[in-house]
Design a protein that fits this description.
One of its GO terms (molecular function) is phosphorelay sensor kinase activity. The protein has 618 residues and is α+β, with helices and mostly antiparallel strands. It contains 17 helices and 21 strands. It folds into three domains: 264 residues, Beta-Lactamase; 83 residues, no CATH class; 151 residues, Histidine kinase-like ATPase, C-terminal domain (Heat Shock Protein 90). 52% of the residues lie in helices and 19% in strands. The strands form six sheets. Strands 2-1-7-4-3 form a five-stranded antiparallel beta sheet. Strands 9-8-12-11-10 form a five-stranded antiparallel beta sheet. A hairpin with a 6-residue loop joins β11 and β12. α13 packs antiparallel against α14. The radius of gyration is 54 Å and the shape is elongated.
């Protein structure tokens, strides 16, 4: 707190030029930092999105290539069980004659070559029986006994004639070749497709033949080396030059088929997020693994159901943004230098007139009121200097006129006192006239004088902007009595106001101008039958009063001019203005009239809470 207080004191006591330079630099720095941060975030998001799309496309393309290959092999394998030549070869083999087996091996190898020989990615192809492994054994040899005791055979039986792909497995462990353990050989780890062959044959007479029921069905075995699946990912790793990129292919049971870490291949150490990936099928997401945020793109293969993925750290994907940060810092430094220079020049331009004004004020303190500052420009500072010169030129005159001004103030006070005596003098004069009329037996004139005196007394005693409605109606009744004496037997006036409103504070004399207008303008030409009705009630949102007459009304064009304020009506305008000042713009006066249809004035007031205070109804 002490450091903050000291900093604030230094800032408050610093010169204006220093404040201007510092504030300008802080503002520019803040703007640059905000823009740099926003640009960095947008660039990072776009770059991450591009990398994500790139990884997704690589995984998708790799899977499509594998799917095309494997689906093509699957389609060919579907034709193999109905191959007539294969059926005849299998049925004609004498299992006790080795020469017969060798001949059959040559023919079956040729048949397999016809189906799969054009695919160089297939490492080996065999048709296996319990007695013999038919196929090209130049690359590898599959022991029949070991095969028919392996999981490969059991999976071919379980799939009942459908080709099933078996993920990475050890050749030595799967076929029981324990003597091959510890050696390194080309087909140490394989991926194989196996299919039980229910061979059939239709002879020339159209007779359908099938393998004997007690004969064990031969099994087609097609093998790939793991490098075939891995090389597609390895090519991308080599081209991308990403140091920490990892990839892999995992089956639905969590077995790792291939992986960038060779030690994981053939194990069940699948990534922790693989289950979520299988639920989604394809896509990308970000995961925190070992404290590092990583971007993962994945896609499930159609042919095998295996999941391929590529995983890279997010910081590697955003590595190109390091140069952006470097250039941003350089840009910030350059902008700060330019900002300081511009702020210094700007401060000189702004503070120079202020310094001149400061010097002029000091000269005024010494009594020199004839000092003038050179005027330059028409901006705010130029205007300030002109106003200072004008003020300085007038101060001397004001000082000289000060004594005379005070004398005039005293005279004004005396005049105000005299004016306050005038209403009292007028009231006394009306009272004298009232008694003269009584002594001369002029009853009507005496009542008029009395009402007028009481009206004057009521008006002059109350100096507030408002008074109770009961007072206003009493004053109005006296006014109506006086006007009725002038228009005898012509006007009938009726007042219908809710009693609960009598204590309500209302604007002084707010009804009188409208009653006067009704009498003078609406009913003046009547010889009899004139009517004025005054009503007041409490509405849900305001207090309403109406003054309604059956007079000559107002033509439509004049009514529109009245509403627009084009026709001068001092009384109505005064009431309208006072109501809006007291209650707000939503309150006021509305005129409803038509030619020869009478006039209806609607006055809308707010609910008063007390003297001088109003509340709107919401």
């Amino acid at each position: 707190m002490r450091i903050l207080r000291t900093t604030l004191n230094l800032a408050a006591n610093a010169k204006f030029r220093i404040k201007l330079i510092v504030s300008y630099c802080l503002l520019v720095t803040f703007i640059i930092l905000i823009l740099g941060f926003a640009y960095y975030q947008i660039s990072a998001r776009n770059m991450l999105q591009n990398v994500q799309e790139s990884l997704g496309n690589i995984v998708l393309n790799n899977n499509q290539l594998l799917d095309e290959k494997l689906l093509d092999i699957q389609a060919k394998s579907e034709v193999l069980p109905i191959d007539n030549e294969l059926y005849q070869v299998i049925m004609s083999v004498d299992q006790r004659d080795n020469e017969s087996k060798v001949k059959a091996d040559r023919r079956i190898t040729s048949i397999l070559f016809q189906y799969f020989g054009g695919d160089s990615d297939i490492y080996s192809s065999f048709i296996l029986t319990p007695e013999y492994a038919y196929g090209n054994a130049a690359r590898m040899y599959v022991p029949p006994d070991g095969f028919f005791q392996s999981d490969l055979y059991r999976m071919s039986i379980m799939n009942q004639g459908d080709l099933v792909w078996v993920p990475t497995y050890s050749f030595a462990d799967t076929f029981g070749e324990q003597k091959m353990k510890g050696f390194t050989y080309e087909y140490e780890k394989l991926i194989s497709g196996v299919k039980e062959l229910n061979l059939t044959y239709i002879d020339e007479q159209g007779v359908f033949h099938a393998l004997p029921a007690d004969m064990r069905r031969p099994v087609l075995m097609l093998s790939f080396r793991t490098e075939y699946v891995e090389k597609l990912f390895a090519d991308y790793v080599r081209k991308s030059k990403l140091q920490h990129l990892t990839y892999g292919v995992v089956d639905a049971y969590g077995s790792v088929i291939v992986a960038s870490d060779e030690q994981l291949a053939g194990t069940r150490q699948a990534p922790s997020w693989i289950k979520e990936a299988f639920e989604l099928g394809t896509g990308s997401f970000e995961k925190v693994i070992d404290g590092r945020k990583r971007l993962i793109s994945f896609h499930r293969m159609e042919s095998t159901g295996w999941m391929s993925y590529i995983e890279i750290p997010v910081e590697d994907a955003l590595s190109d943004l390091k140069s952006l940060r470097y250039y941003s810092i350089l840009f910030l430094a350059a902008m700060l230098f330019v900002s300081v220079l511009l702020a210094y020049l700007l401060s000189i331009y702004i503070t120079k007139p202020i310094i001149r004004i400061k010097k002029a004020i000091k000269m005024m303190e010494l009594g020199n009121f004839r000092v003038r500052i050179p005027e330059h420009g028409r901006d705010e500072l130029g205007e300030l200097i002109r106003m200072f010169n004008q003020m300085n030129g007038q101060i001397h005159t004001l000082i000289e006129e000060n004594y005379a001004s005070r004398l005039r103030e005293k005279e004004a006070e005396l005049m105000a006192l005299n004016l306050q005596l005038n209403p009292h003098f007028l009231y006394n004069t009306l009272t004298t006239l009232y008694w003269i009329a009584v002594e001369n037996n002029q009853q009507e004139m005496s009542k008029i004088m009395l009402n007028l005196a009481e009206m004057l007394q009521t008006s002059t005693r109350n100096k507030n902007e408002t008074w109770p409605l009961a007072t206003d109606l009493d004053w109005l009744n006296k006014y109506i009595y006086i006007m009725s004496s002038r228009f005898e037997n012509v006007i009938e006036t009726r007042i219908d106001v809710d009693e609960e409103l009598l204590d309500l504070d209302v604007p002084k004399l707010f009804l009188q101008p409208f009653v006067e207008n009704a009498i003078i303008h609406g009913l003046a030409e009547f010889e009899e039958g004139g009517s004025i009705v005054i009503r007041g009630w409490s509405g849900p949102d305001a207090i309403y009063f109406t003054v309604e007459d059956n007079g000559c009304g107002i033509p439509k064009d004049r009514l529109e001019k009245l509403r627009r304020g084009e026709v001068r009506s001092t009384g109505m305008a005064n009431v309208e203005k006072r109501i809006k000042l007291l209650y707000g713009a939503s309150y006021g006066v509305d005129i409803q009239a038509g030619k020869e249809q009478g006039t209806r004035i609607v006055i809308r007031l707010g609910r008063r809470q007390g003297p001088g205070e109003a509340t709107r109804i919401s």
